[in-house]
Task: structure prediction
Amino acid sequence: MAADKVDPIHQFHIHTLVPIHIGGYDFSFTNYALFMVIVVVIAGGGLYWACVSRSVVPGRAQSVAEILYEFSASMLRDSAGAEGMRFFPFILTLFMFTLVANLIGMFPYFPTVTSQIVVTVALALLVFFMVLIAGLMRHGLHFFKLFVPSGIPIVVLPLVVAIEIISFLTRPVSHSVRLFANMLAGHITIKVFAGFVFSLGTLGALGVAGAILPMIMVIGLTALEILIAALQAYVFAMLACIYINDAIHPGH
Amino acid sequence: MAGSDGPGETGKTGTGKAFPHSAENLELDRRLRQLDRKLAEQRKEQQTRERPARSSNASGYAAAVRLSSEFVAGIIVGAGIGWIIDRFAGTSPWGLIVFLLLGFCAGVLNILRSSGMMPERKLSGKPDDAKKDGQ
Result:
């Protein structure tokens, strides 16, 4: 029990809630799946609930919803232009999902879905393939000229093209790892410092006095983590916008 | 542009002394407009400067995670491609070696791009794009 509490990795354990097995594959409904559903419900239902009154002078909830809407709209318009606005539903969904998932993870005992690399990789691959398909639909095979920079001597061209292709393929990796690593590292750090508080607290009066220092650290880190949670959701959506911009006007 | 406006402005203040009120107003208007123009220019410059680094301005920690993930991603993808090629073409270990090195290059390229030390990739071939490249 005691070792359980100090173990900083314990929070990332996946428990099966409803075991589902189809054709030898494990499709079980886990605690993380449950929280993904909760995130979707809170993000979607929250926005719907906030805007259901549709007043001209927005109330508190409606202003928050409008700020989120306008924030992601201007983020997409700034980086991908007016043409990129057709991807706006996707970007708003992506931003709301990551934002709500990151912030829900800040509650004690709630799992952070974005701290599982499976989730972030799935999101990043979705962005990657969407960019690829949108680029191919718009520019046809011309899109692959993205990998052939102009003004390169023919001798080193194959090398440069290979490097450019690898660099393009690294996008989903770095895109997903960035969100995943930030969430994982932040939550582990908080748990480690909270573990110090717990272990020092069992050492008697002197230990309790000493436990104040990591306690202050935990409070500071929690504030920092809330900032990072919002920031990383923004960065994730922002990168998706930049990639979409590459797909729709690669020359820009 | 601002340099050419300067002397003209001082000349006007000299001649406009006969009608102090209107001349002063005109002068103020002119200076206001000039200030507006300068502000607009500066704002535009600031925006263009901020745009590539927008995701990096948060903190050093964010920049560290960003750059290291870009670099590590390059190496991982390069090694992965090399390993797959080796597995299917039976060229072990040459595919892994070559693509690991290429992945290293791609990682460095990613870092240079995301830190804004290199221009983003551009689509060549279209004449109007080539013009944009030149600008």
